Structure formats: structure tokens, C-alpha cells
Amino acid sequence: QVQLVESGGGLVQSGGSLRLSCAASGLIFKIYSMGWYRQAPGKQRELVASLEKDGDTKFADSLKDRFTISGDFAKNTVYLQMNSLKPEDTAVYYCNAFASRSVYGIQEYWGQGTQVTVSS
Question: How far apart (Å, rounded) are the C-alpha atoms in residues 38 and 46?
């Protein structure tokens, strides 16, 4: 199994910054992409940003000016730098990865989530 463990969430004032980290561990043959999703109360889970092993990135259009994704696939880690945070960024942030445990079978994995709360 592949485990994803997030860290770095917490309470921050509007306009502040947070950096989330996610580390993948377990029986990993290859990680193809890692990223972040978020889910606010009463809303669907949505993509924040993702990073492919070849360096390609995807962002939610509304967040690309304030959030930055980076990663180190040699260490199976991904980071999300969040700046100029707003109360509407309050959500549980989930780490996501597509990985394989052998030469066959790519699977999608999720972390447990880390709460980010932005106070006004």
C-alpha cells in the first residue's frame, strides 16, 4: 500500500501564508504525479494544483496567482505554498498521488487531509 501523510495545516489570518507538505511512503515503484485537492464544508472536492513527474503542472485558475506547487519526486514529496490566504480558502486539503507498486497498475491514492482555516 502507499500512504500519503500531509502536514502544515492550521489557523492563519487573512493575508497570511501556509506551506503544506505531503510525503508518500510504502511500497512504491513509481510516482507519476502528486497534487492537492481541497474540500470546503458543503462543497465538492476540487483540484488545487497537481505536479507531474515531468514537471507539468495544473492549477485551479482562481488560485494560480497565490498558490505554488513544488515537489521532489526523488523523495516522494510535494509541497503547496499558499500566499495571501482568504477566508474562502478554508477547507480540508488532501494530498493526491498516482503511483504504481510494480511495473503494472497505476492507482490513485489520497491522504487523510489537513485542515486549513483562514480567519477574517
Answer: 5
